[in-house]
Design goal:
alpha/beta, Rossmann fold, 5 strands, about 35% helix, nucleotide-binding, kinase, NRK1 kinase
Length: about 200
């Protein structure tokens, strides 16, 4: 049995969840873990001097629990409730390969996760497009006025810069303004190449 752990990180509203769901439908034995499921309750999230809840930082998440969940899945992917029926277009020789897609906005800035990835993808968006998409979404708690410019976007730039400055980190940057079909086609082909390498 072999496992492949794929990171799908990047900007808020970049299309990570949609891409992860579409890949899951196309790949054999595929499961998703979403970072959004590891947010601390609002009462435990720090507030800065402007009154902004600091959600876009590692401290707002139970990252150790996330690592534990991923490691647990890697030890016994078959028992994780993952659907093991094969999509029509996959070859029989992938039966004992299990794929985990981990999607979230802060995947590669937390050291304990970095030894787990087989592939890392990072979706990017220009400022205007990201702000436009963010304004169409409803969050709990809701974004307060100035929150995107005062917290969300600066944190995205900070963490992205950290990644870019880490020479040892192999990250495949994806343009989130491309069509979902284009992104899906690119990432799917890339994962299939990885799967073929595993089989060799």
């Amino acid at each position: 049995m072999k496992v492949l752990v794929i990171g799908l990180g990047g900007v808020t509203n970049g299309g990570k969840t949609t891409l992860a769901e579409k890949l899951k439908n196309m790949l054999p034995n595929c499961d998703i873990i979403s970072q959004d499921d590891f947010f601390k309750p609002e009462s435990e999230v720090e507030t800065d001097e402007r009154g902004f809840k600091l959600y876009d930082v590692l401290d707002a998440l139970y990252m150790d629990e996330m690592v534990t969940s991923i490691c647990k899945w890697m030890k016994s992917p078959g028992s994780s409730g993952v659907v093991t029926e094969k999509p029509q277009n996959t070859c029989d020789n992938l039966k004992n390969v299990y794929i985990l897609i981990v999607e979230g906005f802060l995947l590669y800035n937390y050291e304990p996760l970095n030894e787990l990835w087989n592939r890392r993808y990072f979706l990017t968006l220009p400022y205007e497009e990201c702000k436009r998409r963010r304004s169409t979404r409803v969050y709990q708690p809701a974004d307060t006025p100035g929150y995107f410019d005062g917290h969300v976007w600066p944190m995205y730039l900070k963490y992205k810069k950290e990644l870019e400055e880490n020479a040892s980190m192999q990250v495949d940057y994806l343009d989130g303004t491309k069509s979902q079909e284009e992104l899906l086609s690119y990432v799917y082909s890339d994962i299939i190449k990885e799967l073929n390498k595993l089989r060799e």
